[in-house]
Write a structure and sequence with these properties.
Oligomer: single chain
Distance between the termini: 6 Å
Largest sheet: 5 strands, mixed
Radius of gyration: 13 Å
Strand content: 25-35%
Number of helices: 3
Structural class: alpha+beta
Length: 111
Amino acid sequence: MNDWPTALRVNAFTRAVEAAGGSAMVLARGDRDSGIVLLLAIDRDGTARLLERERDLNGHSRVIHRKPDLVAERDLTPYWQERRERDPDLWVVEAIVARPEPLAAETLWAD
């Protein structure tokens, strides 16, 4: 899956979220082939978090929780909008589903 275009990965993720009984929406489309994906994960209680895959200097990937001190969607929105202004290739995907991390690992961030 690592050679799949980002647009296809995002599509697979949104379908997986919907199949798990949740909802997903693309808030911003980035580069179709190689854009980075920022995931706005919202729990049923309204708690939100931003997740992103990052590679270290050795090439190992890990999922990073951006802005962990902020837990409201309205507080996280300015952060991703500012990132998007600096990087128009950035994708932003919102998911409201229980345990989005395994779904993202299987689709968005699969190696």
